[in-house]
Amino acid sequence: MIVVTIPKFTSIQIYPPRNHTKDRHPRRTYLVLSSEFSHSEPTSIAHEAKRRCDCFDIYKETVPYAEAWSWQKSIVKERKALIEQDEDCSDTLIILQHHPVYTLGTASTEKNLNFDISDAPYGVYRTERGGEVTYHGPGQLIMYPIVNLRYHKMDLHWYLRALEEVVIRVLSNTFSIKAFRLEGLTGVWVGDQKLAAIGIRVSRWITYHGLALNVTTDLTPFQEIVPCGIRDRRVGSIKGVLRDHVSCDEYGKAKMHLSDEQLVDITHKSLVKEFCKVFQVEICHRPIPMQMFSQGKLPTLATNENIS
Amino acid sequence: MASRLWASRAASYLRISTTFNRSFSTVLKDLKYADSHEWVKVEGSSATVGITDHAQDHLGDVVYVELPEVGAAVTQGGSFGAVESVKATSDINSPVSGKVVEVNEVLSDSPGLVNGSPYENGWIIKVELSNADELKSLMDADKYSKFCEEEDAKH
């Protein structure tokens, strides 16, 4: 396990830099350096068997959007068939990254694109998820949970809050970054920056699409859109938040010597852990079905077993 | 049973309060209801379909309604459109089978009618029924009210 090197001193509060013009809470503390890597242990429910969640984890791979989208839909179709036969026993979680792409939701307006859709810098997909336009690209971890809300809570608001909770805990427990929700602006915020965007589709209580968390993402492509239709706030990344605050540190020794790859690794591990805790599921890693992807798209995969 | 325990454990562990509303939602007597929270009003061989007060209440503010094409076929239990609210788009399923003869175009500009007037101005499609027998499998107002109470009580 990679451990973040953090100097040993008691918690200090770091206030945002003074030129943080858009910060509406100038005294809000949103990064606290603590003296050790913090963990929160779950409340023990050892007597309860947790619902199984099959995890297709290709978090280091950048996958074409169309392939992943079609994969999700095929899983949803299978799940609905299982529900008809009363055999739906497990949820699914897909974790991956995407090649650069813009995606729109059902109600998205092209007014939130700062380019002509016929001359777009990257592919643009109009999808069946909720939410406005967003960008996906390398360095951004995507989670597509395909859960049957009948086994969790048949409440879309709960589900959205739960997805936010996963990310909030990752940021807090792993990076000591204080992130929060904003009522009416679904997603996860640090200061005035949105680090995670969420948009879902629900069909017969089966969810798909999900969340996108900027870890080391190049945020430049977000300038070509009005992300999520929100004009007066910014998009951020974990790397950006850490870099801003480490450079502010008056003690000078709090340097984060983490490569982008390490940052993605740490975030991924934490995302899986917090997802399991929030949704009370037990992850069961599954090999990726090769027929779901074109040949040569995922050269690093070592297996070509089919899902059983 | 186990699923209820999972859900309640998860909710209490998260200590998340939901927008869950225990107040009584309106249920109209002369309509039929599907367990996916759509209503149907039958007049001869044609039917008007929408989502119930209970459904719109749980969804929150509807920002978009995806309508089918006039002439499209619908089947009982099959999805024919979608409603979007709070970053979540949900299927709307047809309580009856038949052909779409009219869609409520007003919803394109005023999706909020689904919230404000779910049984009247917020109607979604009109269908020419292909099988009136299907109505027998739907719930009446009393059964639907009870169904909603039981569903809400589970979570």
Q: What does this 3D model show about the protein?
A:
The complex is a heterodimer of chains A (308) and B (155). Chain A has 308 residues and is α/β, with parallel strands linked by helices. Chain A has helices spanning 65-84, 156-175, 238-248, 260-279; strands spanning 12-13, 32-33, 51-63, 90-98, 101-104, 123-126, 134-136, 140-146, 180-182, 185-190, 193-203, 206-214, 234-235, 281-285. In chain A, 23% of the residues lie in helices and 26% in strands. Chain A is globular. The two termini of chain A are 30 Å apart. With 155 residues, chain B is of the alpha+beta class. Chain B has a single domain (27-154), classed as OB fold (Dihydrolipoamide Acetyltransferase, E2P) (Beta Barrel), CATH 2.40.50.100. Helix content of chain B is 27%, strand content 29%. In chain B, the strands form 2 sheets. In chain B, strands 1-2-3-9-8-5 form a 6-stranded antiparallel beta sheet. Chain B has a 3-stranded antiparallel beta sheet with strand order 4-6-7. The radius of gyration of chain B is 16 Å and the shape is globular. The interface between A and B is large, with 40 and 35 residues. Chain B: Its cofactor is (R)-lipoate. Chain B: The glycine cleavage system catalyzes the degradation of glycine. The H protein shuttles the methylamine group of glycine from the P protein to the T protein. Chain B: Keywords: Lipoyl, Mitochondrion, Transit peptide.
